[in-house]
Amino acid sequence: MNLIDRTFSRLKEQGKTVFIPFVTVGDPDPDTSLDILQQLELAGADLVELGVPYSDPLADGPVIQRSSMRALRHRITIADCIGTARRARERGIRLPFVLFTYYNPVLQFGLERTFRLMRESDMSGIIIPDLPVEESGEARELAAAHGIHLIPLVAPTSNERIRKITERASGFVYCVSSLGVTGMRSEFDAGVERFLASVRQSTSLPIAIGFGISSHEQVERFSKICDGVVVGSAIVRKIEEAGPLLTSPDRREEGLALVREYVRQLKG
Q1: Which residue from 105, 117, 196, 243 could staple onto 78, CB 3.0 to 4.6 Å apart?
Q2: Total-model pTM
Q3: Are 198 and 176 in contact (CB under 8 A)?
Q4: Which residues span the domain enclosing 259?
């Protein structure tokens, strides 16, 4: 069974919600990204999204855009991001990994090559936010052939397309909490619960919510109505704030501890 399926099933039996941090691979540098993954596991993360840095991230707000720019200074590629998962396994990290990437890097690297390398690196899923469900057939078939879940995003504006999207979903359904790009929010649309209920009615897969969740209170709120909660920009911002420590040989451990304790507090 795919690690994503096992994780959602195990935590559901325990009455718990899957906590899913997002990080940009290569921020602030490749080796520190690997160390951060270890800290996420120690902090209680259940699954991690590995973001591929991209020069034109259409769905990402300024915090993740800046992290992509920092990572791209190290010439991080999609192959490097997948390789980070392999290096994490070699270090003993057991978390399921989901690759978060735009379609162009996958297309340039090659679809079959991407999924084969993901399988060899023990990755469990992939999210491609700019790949419409109507055009995802080839990617979906290749992903399935390699045992990888192609996880769709569903937005509040999806309306009549929700069932079409969820019918072809695999692993879990990623529900976008708000319109617009990623980023921290203090409030959410009043209709978010109604939106989540409509997605829940359309699929038997677990549903997770992301985009804008940035506090323990928000994690706790959505944990009551979702199977998984994704936190991205808030964690990426903490990594940015800890950057001077993380890149200092003498204070590196202090920076890693800051990130670990912040994620632990978010999960609660």
Answers
A1: 105
A2: 0.94
A3: no
A4: 3-267
